[in-house]
Design a protein that fits this description.
- Helix content is about 0%, strand content about 50%.
- The chain is mostly beta strands.
- The strands form two sheets. Strands 2, 4, 5, 6, 9, 10 and 11 form a seven-stranded mixed β-sheet that branches.
């Protein structure tokens, strides 16, 4: 069982930056692929970035490539999402999720992730 807690959200002006943190409790963190997802009002949840259990591979949605960077510190059981050049369309609740999977790649299908945090609100507005 993994427990997930996100933090770091807030209000930021367009062009600004935020760093989200995802702390995962449980000894199997090092075996888990981690994904960041977001859901804006009236929209479906979408995958933003994910990172494999060893941290060697990362994937990002086209809408955030070049602006968002995902990383993990296995010694701290933490995954980060560094967000730069934020845009109003990045406004959403951001969720961290974990999957214990033997596959070598992480995925953006949210239904495959059994463990979720409560989410953190990111609002980009002037």
């Amino acid at each position: 069982q993994l427990r997930i807690v996100e933090s770091g959200g807030g209000l930021v002006q367009p062009g600004g930056s935020l760093r989200l943190s995802c702390v995962v409790s449980g000894s199997r963190f090092v075996a888990a692929h981690i994904g960041w997802f977001r859901q804006a009002p009236g929209k479906e949840r979408e995958g933003v970035s994910c990172i494999t259990r060893g941290g060697s591979n990362t994937y990002s949605a086209d809408s955030v490539k070049g602006r968002f960077t995902i990383s993990r510190d296995n010694a701290k059981n933490t995954v980060y999402l560094q967000m730069t050049d934020l845009k109003p369309e990045d406004t959403a609740v951001y969720y961290c999720a974990a999957i214990l999977d033997s596959q070598s790649q992480c995925v953006f299908e949210s239904w495959k992730y059994p463990y979720w945090g409560q989410g953190t609100q990111v609002t980009v507005s002037s």
